[in-house]
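Hi W., the glutamine complex you wanted:
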Amino acid sequence: MPTKYIIVTGGVLSGLGKGIASASIGHLLSSRLKIIPIKCDGYLNLDPGTMNPYEHGEVFVLDDGGEVDMDFGHYERFLGVNCKSKWNLTMGKVFDIIRQKERRGDYLGKTVQYIPHVTDVIKNHIFDIAEEESPDLIIVEIGGTVGDIENELFLEAMRQMKEDVGKNNIVYVHLTYVPIPHGVNEQKSKPTQQSVNLLKQRGIFPDIIIGRCAQFLTPQIKAKISNFCDVDPKAVITGLDVEDIYEIPLIFEQEGLAEILHKKLNIYSPPDLRRWKQYINNIRNPDKEITVAMCGKYTRLEDSYASIIESFNHCSAHLKCKINLKWIETTDLKDFSFLDEVDGVVVPGGFGIRGTEGKIEVIRRARERDIPFLGLCLGMQLAVIEFARNVCGLKGANSTEIDPETSYPVIDILPEQKNIKDKGGTMRLGAYPAVLKKGSLVHQLYGRDEVSERHRHRYEVNPQFHDIIQEKGMVFSGKSKDGRLVEFIEIPGLRYFVGTQAHPELKSRMESPAPLFYGFVKACLGM
Ligand code: GLN
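Structure:
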């Protein structure tokens, strides 16, 4: 069977959830098919690694060290695959490839043009992946909204693909918005019509339209969209506003999306949603509840911490526990009374000075009051700093990232990072193995001697201070294979005081919540 393609585009508004829609389509079809997700982003950065999470949401890190769009988090969680950085194609990467080809002489004698040269690079990139992975199905999500200048070349490449792969092997799905204006109280189709028109002007005639809406689309509006946009009425699907994104595959299934895709692509992969339904049921019907303080810097935008939020959802699904996240902005934090109302504290990853003293103070109080604590990357580093200052008596201990002049640099730049000048893609990135200490809590939580988690950092626990910190009672419960890098810490005797240099939230899945989160939630519950 040749590889089949589903191309997902978006219209009307950004932020309608194309990533979730693509991942949900994949989830529906994943029972019998090998599916590869690809995301095309129109910006000129090589990858999102240097972007502020405020602007672009969380930077997702893959096993291979790729820093990619946060939609890859949804893909991995919904499809159960480990993605590769090649599957995130940005316009920055496309131009980088073009420039290298041109310098090499690949285009000798020719004028290098948007069409066919740029569109060829885009298509060949996708076809390369098809050849390397031999999937049954590739889902290509085109970032942005139809009409954006920066996505035109991707759209043109997608249009051309129909000719290359054959019209029976490709389906175009367009996600739009169906508003119900206040006072009018009726579902409106005009934005969808206009957005589909924009797409048609580019030569793409959608086969399926998903209308994001606060209600199920009525038969009338489906008929209208079908009529004006030239699609089968059955191919107009509701993209319902839902409280949690894991419901989307269920909605799509109810709306008959899988069946239409089977027919149009001549595939058969019946959705198996039983376990997923059970998980959602557990999330919806909790029998216990906890509140966790998330002490960070970008807490105004939840997208910055998407994977952490999902990790907690995974715990909810297994423990039938409602988990309220209380977002605490630690810049200029003076009032710590929130600690009276929470069952646990998380200090997530981060960069730079802002907010660090507030976080250190939160960690001190959590440790002294024995409130369950989980430190992720920077959160772990700050826990080591706090311990060095207040237990080991190393006054003014710090990370050289925060205070380059500190007399006790308990966190210091990795030796291999010292001479690196470029900022993009140069951190310690991707999955690395760690050896766990037998008898430690972390070892017990993972139930294994060796684990592999993903990383994104430049600093480490300074080996010069390993002895004094351990003498005073902090346990290094996991280290890199050569024993140099501290990957996991814990303080025995406390209910739960655990940190890791890694980002275990990136590998948490509905079927298998990240062990450190699972253990943390259980500790918050007093289990
Ligand atoms: N800023 C710290 C470092 O680079 C922590 C990074 C992180 O939390 N991802 O080591």
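The chain has two domains: 4-272, 284-524.

W.
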